[in-house]
Amino acid sequence: MAVVLSVGTRKGLFLLRPGGGGSGWDVEGPLLPGWSVYHAIVDPRDGVLYAATNNPFYGATVHRSNDLGKNWERAEEIGLPEESGLKLNATWHIEPGRDSELWLGGDPGVLFRSDDGGLTWEVNRSLLEHPTRERWQPGAGGMCCHSIQLVNGTMYIAISAAGAFRSEDGGGNWRPINKDVAADFHAEKYPEVGQCVHKLLAHPAKPERLWQQNHCGVYRSDDRGDNWERLDGNGLPSGFGFGLALDPDDADVAYVVPEESQEYHYTSQGRLGVYRTADGGKSWELAANGLPERAWAAVLREGCTFDDANVYFGTQSGSVWTAPQGVSSWTEAVRDLPPILSVEAAAV
Amino acid sequence: MATVLLPGTLAAEAGGQKRFELDAGTVGEALRQLPVTNLLFDESGELRRLVNVYVDGVDARGGRLLDEPVTEQSEVRVVGAIAGG
Fold first, then answer.
1. Does any domain span residue B50?
2. Closest residue in B to A79 (Cα–Cα)
3. Which of A7, A8, B3, B80 satisfies CB 3.0 to 4.6 Å to A37 for a cystine?
4. Which among A58, A9, A63, A14 is positioned nearest to A37, based on CA atoms?
5. Exposure string (b/e) for A216-229, b if CB count within 10 Å is 16 or more?
6. Which domain holds residue B47?
7. ipTM of this model?
8. Is A161 helix (H, G, I), strand (E, B) or coil?
């Protein structure tokens, strides 16, 4: 088994594989030229590569490839029912589920399910018709459902800016889980819904533990989102950011990439800095060995990922960085790609 | 048989085919026969806002758009709208 990185960019998809002899990375692409790839993932169940693809002229869709990008099929049916009065603005995140399930998050705050490998997609009615929907607002990136997590039969989703939601019945019902999560831009600072989650992850080995990088801080929950603790006063230069990564072997470890502020979407203090906590967010340390000390980069919400061995992130300036878990030192795997929207790692 | 010409991204989605000879009486009839209809039309069946169609070099949005008549000699060209800098 070898790792392959799926790097979604504004100008297509790139696949990165470790080069021969263990040095450097081989770059394949652009695949799907003409499409902005908001997220791409290799389904660990069958090796099918899926991409959430968007084009300013031809709309939002999903592509799938059975042979890692050599040939592609496009979704046949995807869209919102006419009676909703809504139209699909963008596809954002694809997440394999149980059995044959495949989930897709999109804008405007919608979730789809496919049971035929991504050819047809059925909208999740419970979320589409959620009683709080009228209180949701689009963030700068639209009203995107960007985080989908499935752990031990529980589903979590996060929408910017609607907040985080949990379902115990496979998407039949969605309960807001935003207690004590700030919405500083809102008239009511701690509303039931309307929070601007930038990324939400559940720890794979400790499923009751959730992390979120929010527009208004970094948070951890130890009770599946019923309560949240704000963590960004403990060494982080800013609570604002997008990327988030974890360590599968240690639930107390998390990585974030703080940005200066909501007004200035570049790395905090003019350096490309990843911050790591090893104590559940009680304290954070700069883990930037190997990263440029002067850089005004930006890492988007799908731009960070991890596996058992490594942490990866891609920048809007087209570089992919890798480091072993624990981050002794970062290595630039590739540079000068188009602006990077997403990075995923898979063993194939 | 009207001729329909597709730009690069759509042609790639149509298996690499850029040129289609189609039996159609209107622009709409021609476009709906293409293998990329769900990229040209949204879920409501409306032509996407930034998709322009030219019939023999004339912008069909200035005419009857999907109801614009085409003949066997017509050339229907699909073009993404010019946007940005």
1. yes
2. B43
3. A8
4. A9
5. bbbbbbbebbeebe
6. 2-80
7. 0.92
8. coil
The answer to whether position B62 is within a domain reads yes
B35 touching A, CB under 8 A?
Answer: no
Q: Which two tokens stand for residue A47?
A: 């090796």
Q: Residue written as tokens 């769900």?
A: B38
Interface of B with A in 7-26 (CB under 8 A): 8-10, 12-13
Structural domain count, chain B: 1
User: In this predicted structure, what is the pLDDT of residue B61?
Assistant: 87
> Which of A57, A61, A70 is the best mutation test for B, with the most CBs of B within 10 A?
A57
For B46, nearest residue in chain A (alpha carbons): A87
- Does A59 contact B42 at a Cβ distance shorter than 8 Å? yes
Using a CB-CB cut-off of 8 Å, the residues of chain B touching A57 are 9, 48, 50-51, 80-81
pLDDT by residue, tens only, chain A of 348 residues: 799 999 999 999 999 999 876 669 999 999 999 999 999 999 999 999 999 999 999 999 999 999 999 999 999 989 999 999 999 999 999 999 999 999 999 999 999 999 999 999 999 999 999 999 999 999 888 999 999 999 999 999 999 999 999 999 999 999 999 999 999 999 999 999 999 999 999 999 999 999 999 999 999 999 999 999 999 889 999 999 999 999 999 999 999 999 988 888 888 888 999 999 999 999 999 999 999 999 999 999 999 999 999 999 999 999 999 999 998 899 999 999 999 999 999 999
Cβ distance B50 to A56 less than 8 Å, yes or no, reads yes
Q: Indicate whether B85 belongs to any domain.
A: no
Query: Which residues 44-83 of B are in CB contact (within 8 Å) with A?
Result: 44, 48, 50-51, 80-81, 83
| CATH number for B13 | 3.10.20.30
Is residue B41 a part of any domain in this protein? Answer: yes
Residue-by-residue DSSP string for A79-96: ---GGGT----EEEEEEE
DSSP string, A34-100: T-EEEEEEE-TTT--EEEEEEETTTEEEEEEETTTTSS-EE-SB----GGGT----EEEEEEE-STT
